Amino acid sequence: MKKVIFEKAANDALWKMPRNYARLIHKKIYQYAEGEGAQVNNTKRMKGSRTVRLRVGDWRVFITETQATVEVTDIDIRGEAYKRKGKHK
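^ mRNA-degrading endonuclease RelE of RelBE toxin-antitoxin system, sequence as received from the core. Prediction below:
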């Protein structure tokens, strides 16, 4: 399993959201880090970027991945996730 690192923005977002969503998102991030194939349909590489988007219900988790780590850069609700251009590059 790859090491999971949460940036401040992602950590803050988890603490601000309802606990049941935070638990679900946390679980899905660690499933992704373990390489479980179940998350394949819920991921997409962002155009022109190393960032991967993970869908968890109405939430979007933005991840930058290396060989050894999964860095969670941001978590946002679907409607807000793409408003600022270049935010997730």
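The beta strands are 3-6, 43-45, 51-56, 59-65, 69-77.
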